[in-house]
Amino acid sequence: MATSSLASDATARIERLASRILVYKKLYYTGKPTLTDEAYDALEEELRRLDPEHPILAMVGYDLGKAEGKVPHEPPMLSLSKTYEQGELLQFLRKAPVVVGDKFDGMAMALEFDENGRFYRASTRGSGSFGENVTEHLFHVLSIPKNLVLGLPVEVTLEVRGEVYFPIAAFKPFQERFDSYRNAVPGTFGRKDVDAAVDVLHVLAFCAYDFILKDKSGRVLEADETHEALRQQGTSFLSRLRWLEEKGFYTGVGAGLTRKLPEDLDADGLKEFLDTTYAAPRDYLMDGLVFRFDDDVAWETMGATSHHPRGSLAFKQTGETAVTRIVDIETGMGRSGKVTFRARLEPVQLSGAKITYATLHNADFISQGGYAPGAQVLIKRSGEVIPAIIGLHEPSNSSYLVPEKCPCGYDLSRVGPDLFCLVKVACAHKDQESLVYFVQTLEILGVSDKIVARLREAGLLAGPADLFRISVDDLLGLEGFAKKSAENVVRAIQEKRRLPLATFLTALGLKRGGEVKCKDVARRYGTLEAVRAATPEDLASEKGWATKSAEDFLQSLHEKADLVESLLQVVAVVPEPRSNLSDEAKAHPYFGKSICITGALSRPREDYKKSIEALGAKLVSSVTSKTDFLVSNEASGSSKYQQAQKLGIPVVNEEEFAAKL
User: Fold this and answer.
1) Structure confidence at residue 6 (pLDDT)
2) Pairwise pLDDT comparison (120 vs 415), residue with the higher score
3) From CA 269, how far away is CA 512, in angstroms rounded?
4) 378 vs 373: CA distance, rounded Å
5) What is the separation, in whole angstroms, between the first and last Cα of the chain?
6) Of 54, 64, 55, which is closest to residue 29 (Cα–Cα)?
7) Among 45, 367, 384, 647, which residue has the fewest nearby CB atoms (within 10 Å)?
8) Under a CB-based contact definition with an 8 Å cutoff, are residues 268 and 516 in contact?
9) Element at 650 (helix H, strand E)
10) How many whole angstroms separate alpha carbon 333 and alpha carbon 429?
């Protein structure tokens, strides 16, 4: 399970000791001592031996600063712009390379350290401009280091911003104290009686998602100054997070949950990425994903509204959570041979519906998460889809053994986190799903998955081409078909004898061949013959296609040659009209070029994008060996500019670029 470890053993020991000293110190100075002077002195002496610069030791009396009143945030702790639409997210991702990380369902905090690296104040996000002082609370959170070795060449203070959250595994002892995970953290920090919350504070965790440095005058260092102070090459946000992890903070980078997003994702690839990311097991509740420009200078240049930074975007899935018990784990088979899993649950009300089933993503998800019949689990329902299990609430007394054989009798193969039946012989379970997918793609009215199964059982349907050979008399021989219903089904099938190229390709169930990808291919090549003659290199040169995706798509098409030939005997594939450019556009020097842009421009980038595409060129999001030139108004430390220099890609300024447009 991907987890955010609270702290190393040594750090946890130090912070637990410091927490005890703080409790006894407060009791002593409020006239309620519970420890002898000798015993208290022994605790301080032990802490001094382990961490002689710990801020608790420098505290005179019981002074945590001005605990009352508001703490100003400069710059403000802004909210994030949010979207629930993958299309809107995809548009954002095309602007620049991004880093993606989890959006924690916790409470935002700012932790301040002085020029010597000693923690001295903590505050909630509050209004964004001012927050509540919760320094005493944070001194008891063991997972937060309180004494850092900054090791910087300039004298600065450090402010670490992040999220305090409740690890799922640590919540069980407190479930009677709090009505939900969501209320537990703000409920704890809202208590004025900190002593009564120390046991909770000890188990809370903190994920850092950013930091700022300030000079002696209190001025916030700009992005390039910050990276220079850290002695880092470039201005990558991900490298700043790695620096935080070196200082003892959890950021998700080391766990692989905060990372650079692939730059060539299209709609299908993004959906696959989101599904995989949400399926990863975690020891905390998440409230979505956060996408942020990786280039700090670009992010800073984008600026912010009064509400949110323009270089960041949160993607959220709607839904509520509930706890229930797994009654059984059921398996199915997809058309690709992938084994699917779902949990049959004790019925529970969620988002106004009675829930009896939830998705279990794959074999690894089940094994690593400890899911088995009898386990208490957290489920989440997004929109109107079948809910997914998102966390283990209480383990089962027994474990679940994932299947080793397909129902067809052949051994299952492990491919990454999934199980597959990869045998090339006929497999009734895979064939059923492939036929249902074909029917659904063609939108054949009246032909359900149950009818497909009945046709197969009757020996009328071995492959998709057989659909078009079924007659009314064939159907009348099956139970449940009257003459009228048989005629309707045959008519609905025969109406699909002329198929648009994009529909035909989609219905084949090609690897990497979702509806959007197949439409792109159809528009690019126009005819089935041209698609079958395409090379991976040619397809990979198109926007949205990575080399591996192009190879998988075309290899899958070639492997289904027999299926294609059988279908061509009964259907006609209608060519896709190709968008034709004028002879003038084809003669333009930008025709067929791959163009990348970085930095600030005098015109909106979207304007240039339209002009570029109208000339048969492509605006790409990153600089690679395939990029023809980079548009940039000045030399910069951006990753695009540096990559162009490294690869010898020409760089032109906006004036020269626009003149040719």
Assistant:
1) 45
2) 120
3) 8
4) 14
5) 52
6) 64
7) 384
8) yes
9) none
10) 6
Contacts of 114 (CB under 8 A, 6+ apart): 120, 157
Residues whose CB falls within 8 Å of the CB of residue 257, separated by 6 or more in sequence, listed in order: 2, 101, 102, 280, 282
Dist CA 545 CA 633 (whole Å)? 29
34: amino acid identity, one letter: T
Which residues lie closer than 8 Å to 181 by C-beta, 6 or more apart?
A: 105, 166, 168, 171, 285
- Rounded Cα distance, 469 and 641, in Å: 60
Contact call for residues 314 and 80 (beta carbons, < 8 A): yes
- DSSP character string of 106-175: SEEEEEEE-TTSBEEEEEE-TTSSEEEB-HHHHHT-TTS-SB-----SS--EEEEEEEEE--HHHHGGGT
**Residue whose C-alpha is closest to residue 485's, from 495, 496, 474, 501:** 474
Q: What is the pLDDT of residue 116?
A: 92
CA distances from 149 to 5, 53, 219, 297 (A): 21, 10, 21, 26
DSSP-assigned beta bridge partners for residue 108? 163
Instruction: Please provide the DSSP assignment of 318-355 as one string.
Output: --EEEEEEEEEEEEEE-TTSBEEEEEEEEEEEETTEEE
* Over residues 188-209, mean pLDDT: 87
- pTM beyond 0.70, yes or no: no
Instruction: Name the 3-class secondary structure at 365.
Output: helix
pLDDT in tens, 232-250: 888 999 999 999 999 999 9
Tokens representing 642 are: 């540096």
Residue 375, pLDDT > 80, answer yes
Could you tell me which of 220, 177, 180 has the C-alpha nearest to residue 200? 177
Rounded CA separation 168/378 (Å):
10
**Residue 293 three-state SS:** strand
Residue type, 603: R
- Could you count the other beta carbons within 10 Å of the beta carbon of residue 186? 12
Cβ atoms within 10 Å of 191's Cβ, excluding its own:
14
pLDDT digits (tens, 9 = 90+) for 82-113: 888 888 999 999 999 999 999 988 899 999 99
Cα(631)–Cα(619) distance, integer angstroms: 11
d(CA 136, CA 142): 12
What pLDDT, on a 0 to 100 scale, did the predictor assign at position 3? 44
